[in-house]
Fold:
Amino acid sequence: DMQFLNEVEAEADAVGARVRKACQEMPDPEPLSMFDDVYTSPTRPLAAEREQFAAYLDSFVETEAGR
Structure:
């Protein structure tokens, strides 16, 4: 009946709100962690991509002279 469907919808809305809030409150992961657990064992191409991305991230680090 409609009452049951309305209760299910209200509960679904509440669960969705809790999940969204929990996701928003999660800490940001370390950027390089996206390369973890991609394959069961590391591959050379993945290691190279990780190194390139690490170098890219390092390019944003300010140095004492660059301030």
Remarks:
- Residues 2-25 form the longest helix (24 residues).
